[in-house]
Amino acid sequence: MEVGEEFGPWLSRQLKIAGKTQAELADELGLTRAAVSAWITRRSVPRPTVMGEIAKALGTDLGTVHTRTTDTQAGLPVTWYHRPGYQDGGRDGGNAAAFAFDADVQVLARETCQNSLDERLVKNGRPVRVRYTIHELTGEALDAFRAAVLWDELQPHYQAVSESAADQKVGRVVDAGVRDMFEKSRLILLRIDDYNASGLTGDDYDDGKFAAVVRRQLESLKSGRGAGGSYGLGKATLWATSALGMVLINSTLSVPHEGRTERRVIGRLELPWRSVDGTPYAGPAWLGRPDPETHNAEVVRSWWADEETVERLHLTRDNDEPGTSFLIVGAHDVASLEQGGTDSDDEEGNASDGDGTRDIRVMHRRLVEALGRDFWAAMTGGGSRLPLLETSVRTYRNGEIVVEEETVDPTDTQPSRSRALRAFYEGTTVDRLTEAGQVALRTVPLRLPLSGGRSGTLGTHQGVLLVTEAEDKDGVPNQVHSLRGNRMTIKKSTVHGLPLGVTQFQAVLLAGHAAGESAPFAGEAEEFLRAAEPPEHDRWGQTEELTLRWSHSAHNRISRLTTEVNAAVKELVVRPKRSGSEESAKLRKKLTVQRKTAAPKRGSGPTVPELVELDAEIGESKEWRITAEVKLPRADELPAMTPVVLLDVRSGGRPRLDWAELVAVEGCEVEDGVLRFEQGARKAVFRGATDPTSHPVRTELTRLALELRAGSGE
After folding, report:
1. C-alpha span between 301 and 313 (Å, rounded)
2. DSSP tally for the chain: helices H, then strands E
3. Partner of 437 at 20 to 30 A CA spacing, among 36, 321, 512, 554?
């Protein structure tokens, strides 16, 4: 049950909302101003017989005055507040943070589920439950929702954006979203509810989770040490996925604010600069109750809504468990076009969207895929370790079920990897794989650098490597999934250079807190690896934070970890060569093998490494993923070489692409993009991924060339 706010602060705010002074209330009640002042300053409370008179004066019911779990409905109504244009004439064409991510429901699932994991209430030991609800509105249901969000107030602003859409990317997206809603008379709502999470606690304006999400950009106030997010960018995926730039929020707080916890509601709109009736507006807008403490009571703040209001806004939560509901209004999934989105009729014969971006069945399927791929580890438990996360997806049209609620099961989506993690939790791992279904364990060292650019090693963290036989449902075989404290898959890499005949496997690398709280330097490794992640949190490598806090070469420690992991995997899955049996010896005597003639001796001229094998494929982010083998000549000292990746064109100079990642696998080290070879090694293997932003044309339309150049490669 919700605890009501103290009477004094509650009454003070209700007077401001109603536009009444203490003296005016005293006159209406036939009391002195001093009596009202005593209530507000908490020196006394009114008698029960006076409570009814106070309710009449405030235009509310007696129950509201007694419980004080919501504001009165009298006075300043809920409305939209649009930020005024900048006085210096500056203009924003939209929220730049939203451009860090694509309009992709799979990216949305990754970022929002990570945020919910970071805000899980850990003391009760229960997982955070995250549910995604896709709801298509048409006809009367759509009209009722537009009325609930005060569409008539917003219409002039959307019209102004549409009129200037040709000059703004955000404007074109918004214009298409509005036209889709009216021309096809449908709107897609995508709601993300989490339970057993902290909720948006804190003041509307001061430091706190509420202000960080609703008021500010590039601010991350995560609760746990092993939090996945660190840039404050993940929340931008909510607005990036809305073709209308609108997100509504209903939060149940784990810590009371103003004496209450339930139904804290606010909306935020992200539009570009616009001029409406000659008045310029900067961009964002908020749906809330005008704050009487702001100038002219124009700025709105969150309000404590009643159950009827949250129902009309499609924000009703299941229960009073802490957490937050985010409603994306006008959800679209542009990335689905590249991954199987169609414009065919659905199973009920209803034509889906012409461009496929609002196909609710495709959205459902892609959400389930993303959750199973990226969060299988967080949903896996074993022994004394409980799962951190439960997820599900459901789909409706006008309140009727289109796709039943589907709970994501890691044993179904990632059977081998979840088996490996469960064996680690239960202590049933083995040293070497001898039977199907076994899980082998190895520790691999991550040598942590000293901070501040100092040379040396702080200490060695022992990551945990788990290897088991692959199953068909696991996806791409022979991969290593790497994760840290929040148990979200951060890095996926294929182990190359395996001999023919190796049984297909899946491997899991647990680092930081994921390796166990007792693992040496677990906290330091968690901090180091978190700093090595880009905003997408999909790899470990060179980042600006890593350079600033440690050094420009700190990422080499991660490259060495990759080398250690690959070597350990090969040691586990590659069967050692055995000496032949007596029967084999007899058979060999019957065979004749032609001996090669001795090769002529080479001159004593300079020798250089030679590129002998190249394997390349296009990755999920449209990058070229390359694995190369280098033959090393016998020499006392080998020159450093720089791998240079180029586009193979028919004529003219070949454009050079940038590396997003370059790591050593065997026989070499990578330092500042340069290969340095191990003395005595006969071959070297390295792996790299190009930076898609450096590609002048679409990756699928290009051919690749790789060169080894001496020195820095310039």
Report:
1. 17
2. 19, 25
3. 512
